[in-house]
Amino acid sequence: xxxxxxxxxxxxxxxxxxxxxxxxxxxxxxxxxxxxxxxxxxxxxxxxxxxxxxxxxxxxxxxxxxxxxxxxxxxxxxxxxxxxxxxxxxxxxxxxxxxxxxxxxxxxxxxxxxxxxxxxxxxxxxxxxxxxx
Length: 133
Prior knowledge:
Elements: H1 11-60, E1 70-73, E2 85-95, E3 102-113, E4 116-127
Antiparallel strand pairs: 1-2, 2-3, 3-4
């Protein structure tokens, strides 16, 4: 009777294990690349939202008598944020929706990222009976 030494791996087992590990590594690399893109898009959306909120608060803190009806281009607020790709714009539209003594302020921030053009919009109404008469 001959005894067989069965310690270790055969070449075939090593090749199969290496192929499996290779597939797992490639899959993880693709996953991290996709997660990085999602993170970049979420960061850009957060920046655009913060800029729009800052603009809205700026106009909410402006006295009612100083609000001029019309469209204002405030794109200069976006200059510190190069991750928001061009074309990008920040537009404020002030209108009177009907009742005297109430102005509507619509803020829109539009930017481009790698997946297309995105827009963030906020709206509020400001009354002459509010805090900033």
